[in-house]
Design brief:
This protein is an all-alpha fold. It has helices at 24-43, 47-54, 63-73, 94-97, 104-112, 124-144, 154-162, 167-180, 191-197, 199-207, 209-218, 226-230, 240-252, 257-268, 270-273, 280-293, 299-312, 315-380; strands at 2-3, 8-11, 14-17. Residues 60-254 form the Rab-GAP TBC domain.
Length: 381
């Protein structure tokens, strides 16, 4: 539970103070304290407490700890001593199969474009090795899950995991996350994803009429947020620490949380958004640039705002509302089509009637003309 005034997190009845900005020493003390709390709850296998710590400032604080917590929360075994580069016991099959996967070419193209995702300290040789491992992991996961389909941006999510753990851990964790948090994005079509993105406007409408109406009038839609949500912001944020902080939150919470984060960002930038020309091109350009141009996003504040939104609009309730809206829209569509079909049926029947009776109509017309002519001749001759 979050207390905005005191900035205190309660975990199993114990207060865990959120980080303040007083000075560097306080930050160090906070990190040490929180790290000890994380180790404690890992030892106790208290997943609920660990999830709660993900919601306070700094998330899981260090990469070593977050790898352990991520694996624990995803119910994936984490072997710290596993330095084996194999990603599966049957990894000898990978080189023979990898290029035969239908997604291989697209994965290669996306992975080759991931250069900007690597920290400057990573040398070229090491980067190429990472990219090769990344490709193998993605193809392996797709081979293991024939019901899942690759989407552009999936490689950004996978790379984030690979940057903080060995590929054996990354393979197992990504596989688990793909089947839970990312499963709707990996369907054959993006229909479900598109419907989920509509929740953005559903929440904003309840939160802020002015912002909602401005966005609706601009007709910007939800496409601007697609890369935010399906990559967990890893494609659009430049700071790896910020990305990892968000991954702490997303792994620990409901799969809709990236959508709530999107709403939080839009609410945070409301005053600037209202100044943007109310047309689709201008609005789309501005919105897509928010994560890129704001190099120092107030991540911890946005996390708190996101959590508050999820409390006011519980994910399952929100999904039910969105589902009802979709159902109503389909019913309206059916009614519209029914009316159209009824009208088209009348037209079709009329045409068929005319075709079947055209000889009769022609004959009647001809007789009518003849009678008219006969009467005219009779009267005026």
């Amino acid at each position: 539970m979050i207390d905005n005034k005191k900035d205190v997190i309660m975990v199993n009845g114990e207060p865990v103070m959120a980080k303040t900005n007083k000075n560097h020493d306080d930050d160090i003390l906070f990190t040490e304290f929180k790290a000890n709390q994380i180790k404690k709850y890992l030892q106790q296998n208290d997943r609920l407490a660990l999830k709660t710590l993900a919601c306070s400032n700094g998330g899981f604080v260090t990469n070593k700890l977050r790898v352990k917590v991520w694996c624990r929360l995803a119910y994936v075994d984490n072997d710290d001593d596993d330095d084996n580069d194999d990603i599966s016991d049957d990894q000898n099959d990978i080189p023979d199969n990898i290029q035969r996967n239908d997604n291989y070419r697209q994965v290669i193209l996306d992975v080759e474009r991931s250069l900007k995702r690597f920290p400057p300290s990573v040398e070229e040789v090491q980067r190429i090795a990472y990219q090769d491992k990344l490709t193998e992991i993605i193809i392996r996961i797709l081979d293991h899950n024939p019901d899942m389909y690759y989407y552009q941006g999936y490689h950004d999510v996978c790379l984030t995991f690979l940057l903080v753990m060995n590929e054996h851990q990354a393979f197992r964790l990504i596989n688990a996350i793909s089947r839970s948090h990312l499963r709707f994005y990996m369907e054959r079509t993006m229909n479900t994803t598109s419907n989920l993105l509509e929740i953005i406007y559903l929440i904003i409408r309840d939160e802020d009429d002015e912002l909602h109406d401005h966005l609706i009038r601009s007709e910007v839609g939800t496409i601007f947020s697609l890369s935010w949500v399906i990559t967990w912001f890893s494609h659009v944020l430049n700071d790896l620490d910020d990305i990892l902080r968000l991954f702490d939150l997303f792994i620990s919470t409901h799969y809709l949380m990236p959508i709530y984060m999107t709403v939080a960002i839009l609410m945070w930038k409301k005053s600037d958004i209202l100044l943007v020309d109310c047309d689709m091109a201008s609005m789309h350009k501005f919105l897509t640039a928010i994560p890129i141009e704001n190099s120092s996003l107030p991540i911890d504040r946005l996390v708190r705002d996101t959590l508050e939104l999820s409390v006011r609009y519980p994910p399952e309730d929100t999904l039910e509302r969105q589902k009802q809206i979709e159902t109503n829209a389909l019913n309206d569509d059916d009614d519209h089509h029914h009316r159209n079909d009824h009208g088209q049926s009348i037209i079709k029947f009329s045409i068929q009637f005319l075709r079947r009776n055209i000889f009769s109509f022609t004959f009647i017309g001809f007789i009518s003309i003849m009678i008219h002519q006969f009467c005219y001749d009779y009267l005026y001759s």
